[in-house]
Specification:
Strand content: 15-25%
CATH class of the largest domain: Alpha Beta
Number of domains: 2
Helix content: 40-55%
Radius of gyration: 23 Å
Number of strands: 10
Structural class: alpha/beta
CATH topology of the largest domain: D-Maltodextrin-Binding Protein, domain 2
Distance between the termini: 25 Å
Number of helices: 13
Shape: globular
Largest sheet: 5 strands, mixed
CATH architecture of the largest domain: 3-Layer(aba) Sandwich
Length: 317
C-alpha cells in the first residue's frame, strides 16, 4: 500500500538570482553553479530509542542525511519521553519512531491518561488523526514506511499445524484455554490479553509476565508451557525458534509503521530533509528490517556496516 505524505513541507520564498545573459568567465556565480547537493548543509541531531532496531533506524537516517550534506550526530536514549521533549524544543532535529506510539504519546500528553485511542490499524487514518497533535507540539510527521513493528502473537509450528491455525480468529474458534507469555502489563491492554479476549474471543486462562519477546517468552512457547507468545513482528528469533505468527486478521494492532518525526522549525529551514527521508521510507519493508535485526543480533554484523550495505544495495548511497 502506498502511503501518502502526511504533512506538506513547503519551502519558503525562493531567492531568485538573476544572472545577466552576457555574463562571462568573470561571473562570480559561475564557478559554484549546480553542485549544491555536495555542500555542507550544517549540523543535525538524530535521536531515538537505544535498542537494536532503534540503532538501525537512527543509523539509516544518519547515513542518508550525511550523504546529502549534513553533519549528523546521534543521541540515542532510553525512552520516548526524553527524545520527544528534546525534539519539541529543538535540541533534537529528527527521530525515527513508530506511528501509533507517537499518537499514543501525544494523545495522552494532550488529553490525559484516559484519553480514547486515536489510532487504528490503518496507517493513513492514524496519520490523519495524529497530525493535528503533532502540529501543536511543533513536530512534523513525514512519510511512514511500509516497515512496521507491531505486537505479534506466535505459536509453535506443531501447535499451528495440529490445529490448522493461521489467524488469531482460528485460535479463538479453537475454544481451548490458552496460556499467554507476554509483557507484564499485558493483562489489561486492549492490544494484548484484553483485546485478544474481546475481539478474538480467545480464552486467555493465564498470562505469564515473561516479557515482550526475548528468550523467556520464546522458550515458554517452545516448551509448551505457553501456547501463545507476544513478540515484535520484526523479531527474527521467532522463525528461528520454530514459531509462527498468527495473522491479526481483524486489525487489533494499531499501525506501528516507522515514521520520521522532525522538528517543524528545523524542517522549514531544511525542507530537503523531507525528500531524503521520504525516499528512504518509500522502500523500507518489514522483511528488510527483520533481516537487518537478524544481521546485527544473530550474525553480529556492526550496525553501521549492515546499514551501509542495505542502503548501497537499495541505491540510496
Amino acid at each position: 500500500m502506498k502511503l501518502r505524505r502526511a504533512l506538506a513541507t513547503s519551502v519558503g520564498a525562493a531567492v531568485l538570482l538573476s544572472v545577466a545573459a552576457c555574463g562571462g568567465d568573470d561571473d562570480p556565480l559561475a564557478e559554484d553553479d549546480g553542485d549544491s547537493g555536495s555542500s555542507d548543509k550544517g549540523s543535525l541531531v538524530v535521536s531515538g530509542q537505544d535498542f537494536t532496531e532503534g540503532q538501525i533506524m537512527a543509523e539509516m537516517y544518519d547515513q542518508v542525511l550525511s550523504a546529502s550534506g549534513y553533519d549528523v550526530e546521534q543521541k540515542l536514549v532510553d525512552t520516548r519521553d526524553i527524545y520527544f521533549a528534546q525534539l519539541r524544543k529543538g535540541s533534537v532535529d529528527v527521530v525515527p519512531d513508530y506511528l501509533a506510539g507517537i499518537g499514543d504519546y501525544l494523545n495522552i500528553e494532550a488529553n490525559g491518561p484516559d484519553a480514547k485511542a486515536i489510532t487504528s490499524n490503518s496507517p493513513d487514518e492514524s496519520l490523519d488523526a495524529i497530525s493535528p497533535l503533532a502540529e501543536d507540539a511543533g513536530i512534523s510527521l513525514l512519510e511512514p514506511a511500509e516497515a512496521t513493528n507491531q505486537n505479534g502473537y506466535a505459536v509453535s509450528e506443531d501447535f499451528a499445524s495440529d490445529n490448522d491455525l493461521k489467524t488469531l480468529s482460528d485460535l479463538g474458534k479453537l475454544g481451548e484455554s490458552i496460556t499467554l507469555a507476554a509483557a507484564p502489563d499485558c493483562e489489561d491492554r486492549t492490544d494484548c490479553a484484553k483485546g485478544l479476549k474481546e475481539v478474538y474471543k480467545i480464552d486467555i486462562e493465564k498470562v505469564l509476565p515473561l516479557g515482550f519477546g526475548g528468550a523467556p517468552t520464546r522458550n515458554s512457547v517452545e516448551d509448551g508451557e505457553s501456547q501463545l507468545g507476544q513478540f515484535g513482528t520484526t523479531d527474527p528469533t521467532v522463525e528461528e525458534a520454530g514459531l509462527v505468527f498468527l495473522e491479526d486478521d481483524k486489525g487489533l494492532q494499531p499501525a506501528q509503521n516507522l515514521t520520521p518525526a522532525v522538528n517543524t522549525d528545523f524542517l522549514k529551514d531544511h525542507p530537503d530533509v523531507a525528500d531524503t527521508l521520504n525516499e528512504l521510507s518509500a522502500g523500507l519493508t518489514t522483511d528488510q528490517l527483520m533481516d537487518l535485526n537478524n544481521q546485527v543480533d544473530s550474525e553480529r554484523v556492526a550496525v553501521p556496516d549492515a546499514v551501509e550495505q542495505y542502503l548501497t544495495d537499495e541505491g540510496l548511497l
